[in-house]
Specification:
It is a single chain. With 227 residues, the protein is an alpha+beta fold. It contains six helices and twelve strands. The model has no long low-confidence stretch (mean pLDDT 93).
Amino acid sequence: MADSILEAAFADRKPDCARLERFGFSAEGGARLYTERIAGGELELRVLVLADGTVRTEAVDALTGEPYILHLVSGAQGSFVGAVRADYERVLRRIAAECFERDVFKSPVSRRVISYVRGQYGRGLEYLWERKFPGNAVWRRADNGKWFGALLTVSRRKLGIDSDEKTEVIDVRADPESLPALINGTTHFPGYHMNKKHWLTVLLDGSVSAEDIFPLIDKSYALAAGR
């Protein structure tokens, strides 16, 4: 039986063990377990996070210990089923928000870039359009809130490449004077969804090394310092 609520809550997320513990998860073999009464205390919801980050759930009758599954049946109706379903989603969304990190960008270069920005500038990605554009995120300077970079998942065709394949890219600020020399139409492009006189887009598919992208991030961070 497909659990669309569970899939939606934890899509592209990975658990943070320290945050799971603070939230109230306890060790359960090699996994972590959290329990909470829902539906006015009539059911006990058990949320199990496995070592590989997979999330499993079970709702059981608090008195009999019998499994309850109607909240997972799409056609099931009724006030009690609706209340269970609402509580179930609420708990899972809260756990996802408080105990899990977003894990949208998968390419090795993207991961190295994310790690570099966190280590160099202490900044994590912000998913400002989480529901509408879950594959887009930005970095902002702590002092003035200005963006100095963005990670996006886009179709290559939108960059002028003859392919509908999705790819991860980074947008960074650049000097208008030096920007034209950086653009080559194969790995470096005018800023996607940005001011094309001030932003540069670079592929994160491995065609450009992380070491070559780090200086572009440093320059972008400096350019974002102005008021």
